[in-house]
Amino acid sequence: MDILVAIKDEDKEAIRDLYVNSFSDSVQFVDYYFKEKFISSRVMAIKEDTRITSMLHLNPFEVRFNGEKYHVSYIVAVATAIEYRKKGYMGRLMQAALNRLFESGEVFSLLMPIDSRIYERYGYGFIEDHLRFECDSATFMVKPTKYDYTVADDKDMSKLADIFEEFTKQFNLSTIRNSASFEMLYKELLTDNGKILIFKDGYVMSYYEDEILHIRELVSNTDNTFNEIISYIKEVTHLGKVVIMDHSRSPIKYITPNISQNIIKLQPFMMARIINVEAFMKANIKLFVNDIKIKVTDDFIVDNNHIFHIHNDTVSKNVDLEFDVEVDIKLLTQLAFGYMKATEIQSLKKKDFMNDILNNNFFNEYV
Asked: What is the chain's percent helix, strand, coil content, to nearest 5?
């Protein structure tokens, strides 16, 4: 059994076969992914004899967190062939991947799970929820507003990037997208016969499924543009129903009446894991109270297992055995990204070691 840290050309077809056999994506999406997103050097796999048995993909993204830019690996396409499951292959692969990210200097990592239980054992925890609206659009409580939009084409990517950059200023964590990023998203949306509609100060990414309008992303930078987009949705929805995925602070919840035909679900969406605790603390020292000693436990990255002393804007590894609070890597991640608060954790209620952090994250990427 060999762990491959980079895929050779001879293995690419086997990687694609494992992907197709593991996921229910359309042929169009798979073609898009392996043409546009697949990077052989960022695929890790286990090969037994001549067969690829397990894999994960470390897709690179640039994000902004608390005003600083980070290069992060977004873990996708995690799969093991059916006959090789429950043999510990994925555990070995995840262990190798986490240490690879640490050695390469990454500070934290992201993933969107199919089954969160798989990744919690490796220190990942949820840091972002999304709201899913399944609603009768006619019930949205907005005053009808005249709207004007254009259907985006490849000449509009820079404009979309500008709108998105303004929109994401409100979030602690967000993707950094440029025109090339939107060109990629545009191609991805086309695999669902979707489109991007550009309004004056916003846009929507949409597609139809079984004659029902689905909104994958709704971005508006002014109240008037928000009303225009909702007026558009009310006018074009078939059968009166629309499905909208949006961030947990979505203004849509304020215009949606609580009636039987409207279903609003809060769904855990994105997970994260701190990869390098010392580097994370140094870059985000304002998250922590001054003069605190934090013992961190991490079952997979040995160098994270220390007592970190935060004092007067410095972080040092404490040489003695005294500490004020102990947290595992998953809990530290969820606290640092604002998803949980220390006052909500029974064992930490009397430990004032982190400042109040607003859970305000928006990483809305699929692959």
From this structure: 35, 35, 35
Q: Which amino acid is at 95?
A: Q
Can you read off the two tokens belonging to residue 347?
A: 């064992």
Strand order across the 314-317 sheet: 314-317, 307-311, 292-297, 325-328
Degrees to nearest 5, angle at CA 346 with 126 and 354:
65
Q: Is 323 exposed, middle or buried (0-12, 13-18, 19+ CB in 10 A)?
A: middle
pLDDT in tens, 144-185: 999 999 999 999 999 999 999 999 999 999 999 999 999 999
CA 202 – CA 217 distance, rounded (Å): 10
Instruction: Extract the tokens encoding 193.
Output: 């016969």
Mention every residue, 6+ apart, whose C-beta is less than 8 A from residue 27: none
pLDDT per residue over 113-154, tens digit each? 999 999 999 999 999 999 999 999 999 999 899 999 999 999
Q: Are 232 and 85 in contact (CB under 8 A)?
A: no
Q: Which amino acid is at 231?
A: S
Helix (H, G, I), strand (E, B) or coil at 311: strand
Give the CB-side neighbour count of residue 124, counting CA atoms within 13 A: 24
What is the separation, in whole angstroms, between the first and last Cα of the chain? 28
Domains of the chain in start order, with CATH, are 2-106 (3.40.630.30), 141-255 (3.40.630.30)
Q: From its phi and psi, is residue 59 left (phi > 0), alpha (psi between -120 and 50) or beta? A: beta
- For residues 275 and 348, give the distance between their C-alpha atoms in angstroms, rounded to a whole number: 22
d(CA 253, CA 256): 5
How many other C-beta atoms are found inside a 10 Å radius of the C-beta of residue 36? Answer: 12
Per residue in 34-91, pLDDT (tens digit) is: 999 999 999 999 988 888 999 999 999 999 999 999 999 999 999 999 999 999 999 9
Token pair, residue 81, equals 């062939």
Give pTM, 2 decimals: 0.95
